[in-house]
């Protein structure tokens, strides 16, 4: 009995030493080697292999989002995207959901100001069936009327539930201060959307020459590219739509808007100004500075001033809300109503001090290390990598720009 552990140890010691893993540069570990292809109809295909898990992610990026909605029908882009997943020829409503379940697949849809996204995650064994079903949802959805009614009702319920929350209400008022012609998605604008509106938005905006498709996961890249080409080459291109009049910046001195909501235990503050666009050369430097001022951690200047020293809040976060053409830098926090004025003065003082005096060497080193250190977490699975690539494509960037991000962070100086 006593010889068993010794035998196990002897066996373990006799195994060959494991080979040392080859360490690839960070940018290669984050972004696989995509092989971009553009078909004759203008659609762009990005296919790469990643055998991290037995899943294939298929993501489409359509170059129209909330920017292209009629102001009176805000939410149309999202309702259209969600309706794409409600029916195709041969599968509508519950039948389509059951087919997705049979394939071991899940569908997600979302929109931004710049683009509309459809994403299908499917187990590797069924990627061909999943890809063909995905293309049908992208190209030729049937928009069943009863499913559209359900989608609208669900969205209206969410808006009714969240529309008057302090955070959402503050965001709406900030946009009204920031843009002189701002409009918002509400349960009323959703109610105005008809089936014809959804069909028209899909017809005018879901065009191959405005679309990119990403396939990433446990698949042979050449096989996936061949199936994509077979399914998408016959999709006729169309004329690029014209967006409605853009929202116009309000050209006024700094302003304060106070919104009285009796009964709230806390006051929500949004404090902000202009920031860089998603494509601006200064975006990485601005991101580092923003993190140092108010990145949400306990060592940011705003957190130290508002919580550690002032006891005015439990949390504060500064971020740049950027699109392809606009940028808004926002500080977001909540405090006791009696501390509202003091908190606003603290925010202003901290930001003005940062602009006046610049970043310290210690702040810079700590924040730069944080930016580089979080990249592997942000790209930890193929699903996350596809999301980041799709987000970049939506504003006119691509794999090369994503690969350059670690180097751009590393090259920053105080």
Question: What is this entry, summarized?
Answer:
45% of the residues lie in helices and 16% in strands. The protein is of the alpha+beta class. The N and C termini lie far apart (65 Å).
Describe this structure in words.
The protein is of the alpha+beta class and 414 residues long. Helix content is 45%, strand content 16%. The protein has helices spanning 3-13, 26-30, 76-84, 94-102, 127-139, 145-162, 166-178, 187-191, 195-205, 221-232, 283-294, 301-309, 340-357, 361-378, 382-393, 399-411; strands at 37-38, 44-49, 55-62, 87-88, 91-92, 105-111, 116-123, 211-217, 267-274, 316-322, 327-335. Residues 1-23 have low confidence and may be disordered.
Overview features:
16% strand, 6-stranded mixed sheet, alpha+beta, 414 residues
Mean pLDDT across the residues is 90
Strand content: 15-25%
Helix content, binned percent: 40-55%
The ordered H/E elements are HHEEEHEEHEEHHHHHEHEHHEEHHHH
Helical stretch tally: 16
Unreliable residue runs = 1-23
Number of extended strands: 11
What's the story with the biggest beta sheet?
Answer: 6 strands, mixed
Based on secondary structure, the structural category is: alpha+beta
Taken from the alpha-carbon principal axes, the silhouette is: globular
Spatial gap, N to C terminus: 65 Å
- The neighbouring-strand order within the major sheet is 1-2-8-3-7-6
Taking Cα atoms only, what radius of gyration do you get, to the nearest Å? 25 Å
Oligomer: single chain
